[in-house]
Specification:
The chain is an alpha/beta fold. It has helices at 40-46, 95-98, 139-142, 145-158, 173-184, 197-205, 219-223, 238-244, 269-274, 289-298, 316-324; strands spanning 2-8, 14-20, 28-37, 57-58, 63-70, 82-85, 88-89, 109-110, 122-126, 130-132, 165-169, 189-194, 210-213, 228-233, 248-256, 278-281, 307-312, 332-336. It folds into two domains: 2-144 and 303-336, Quinone Oxidoreductase, Chain A, domain 1; 148-281, 3-Layer(aba) Sandwich (Rossmann fold), CATH 3.40.50.720. It contains eleven helices and 18 strands. The strands form four sheets. Strands 3, 5, 6, 9, 10, 17 and 18 form a seven-stranded mixed β-sheet that branches. It has a six-stranded parallel β-sheet with strand order 13-12-11-14-15-16, with helices on both faces.
Length: 339
């Protein structure tokens, strides 16, 4: 069948084109994409800062939609049902896949990164990668279940103890969701830093005790000698990664969540050894998807409010520009493609 897709041709060149999709193969479904998110990683790729994919390519790794066709071996009862998408596809047989860590599979594929993504009207998806949507969750909100799953996986790695303190560096949607989950896990004090006042205000609503605008306040003066049991770095700049450890208490943990432009950053290894800091990298966490659906369905994590920019699918290029603008307008931008 023919589908519409936004094809990236390098640099910031996005074009709405017709693409040809095969019928769903064994174990596959055809998803009519009803909403797709614009991730900061996508913006970095289009800006030339992060290289995951090669043009021409259909990007988009945050999305949700409705099943309109199924392949051999897939029950027809899935037709018409609503799902979010776990975008990580493993081989299914290696020790990582068998152990629930398919994102570490040597032959891993990822929708929107290595294969066609969700910036399209339709997408072929393995049925095993479908995450049922709770009835009270909109397609737009469901696009952010992908971000939430990464954040939840990071929080699990931190093993937060009740009463511990946390500093979050960066107030994008990931930072805001970290504030929420760290609070739910029992952190006694959560501080978040950033440069956008609107996002910092959202972070306060989502559980942060203090939100510091580092463009207006000197962080060293604001925090003084305070150090934290946990530091979460979500920005990915060389500077913020290098500085994250200084805010960790001796014996503390530093979660590396942000992706650095150029893929390299420096850490003070002597400080880490001397004060026994534990640096923990984190990314995908496919094993937590059922818990993500439960958190969102129960209302314990509100994703709907964080979607502050909505564009029709036909204006995805404008949505990308809105997501990348450095003013205080949006927390999260999505495109919608209703029936």
């Amino acid at each position: 069948m023919q589908a519409k897709a936004w094809v990236w041709h390098g640099d910031s060149d996005l074009r709405l084109e017709d693409i040809e999709l095969a019928d769903p193969g064994p174990g596959q479904v055809l998803l009519a994409v009803r909403a797709a998110g614009i991730c900061s990683t996508d913006v970095h790729v289009l800006g030339g800062g992060v290289v995951f994919v090669s043009p021409p390519h259909v990007m988009g790794h945050e999305g949700a939609g409705e099943i309109v066709a199924v392949g051999p071996g897939v029950p027809g009862t899935l037709l018409g049902r609503r799902f979010a998408v776990d975008t990580v596809i493993g081989c299914g047989t290696c020790r990582f896949c068998v152990g629930g860590r398919k994102h570490l599979c040597p032959s891993v594929q990822e929708i929107g990164q290595t294969i066609q993504g969700l910036w399209a009207s339709h997408c072929l998806v393995p049925a095993a990668n479908l995450v049922p949507l709770p009835g009270n969750v909109s397609y737009a909100a469901a696009t952010q279940m992908e971000t939430l799953h990464c954040v939840l996986g990071g929080v699990d790695k931190l093993r937060i103890l009740a009463g511990e303190t946390a500093l979050i560096v960066g107030c994008g949607i990931a930072g805001i969701l970290f504030a929420r989950l760290l609070r739910l896990q029992g952190a006694s004090r959560v501080v978040i830093t950033g440069t956008r006042q609107k996002r910092l205000a959202f972070a306060r609503q989502y559980g942060a005790d203090e939100a510091i605008n580092v463009r207006q306040v000197n962080l060293i003066e604001a925090l003084g000698n305070e150090r934290f049991d946990v530091v979460v770095e979500t920005v990915g700049s060389r500077e913020t990664i290098a500085e994250a450890g200084r805010w960790a208490a001796s014996g503390g943990r530093v979660l590396l969540f942000g992706i650095p432009v150029g893929h390299r950053a420096e850490l003070d290894i002597m400080d880490a050894i001397w004060r026994e800091l534990l640096y923990i990298p984190t990314g995908n966490a496919p094993q937590v998807w059922p818990r993500v659906a439960a958190l969102v369905g129960s209302g314990r994590v509100d994703l709907e409010t964080l979607v502050t920019g909505r564009f029709p699918f036909s204006q995805l290029d404008k949505a990308v520009r809105a997501a990348g603008e450095q003013h205080d307008e949006h927390v999260k931008v999505v495109v919608e493609n209703p029936r």
